[in-house]
Here is the input.
Amino acid sequence: MKNIIKLTLTLLFLSSPAFATTLSVGTTLSFLNINDPDFEYITNRDQLQLSSVSLGLNQRIAKTPFIVSISTNRLLNREISREVRSKKNGAIFTNKTKTEADSFTLGYKIGRYIPNIGIANVGVDKSIYYAGKLAGEKQQHAILGIFGLTYIASKDISISSTITLPNKELNLESGVVLGINYNFGL
Here is the structure.
């Protein structure tokens, strides 16, 4: 978190007439295909999750089409509860998960589109409950490679899509994140 704050302050410090900074506030819908070795989701619908509010800072590099962005969902995040089935004995558990993600991307503006590449620092806290009682807890952390495309719908609204690369630490086979943001010029 300290590194994100330092990067944010650096980007704000660099803000001058030669740089264009935008603050974005939005929400995301994620579909994460997770192949947990111990549990499986009862339906694919359980792998969909609506994120809490995300906050981003976008910095256009002076007189170029390059845009550097950082974002986080740590400020206003919520826990998601889903039913899972044990792969060992078929018992049904409640899985409560809280995912925190900080991302850094580099994009290239082409008209209304910004294709981008980057990395995401992801932390996952899981709690498993059986019959309302805590049965176990697990914390996971990984750095993910991401590819995205942002569409600037209007001066104030942008729509984004991001694909995450597979990751063994999180048992992530694939992921797609769709977002909508309201943008404020700084």
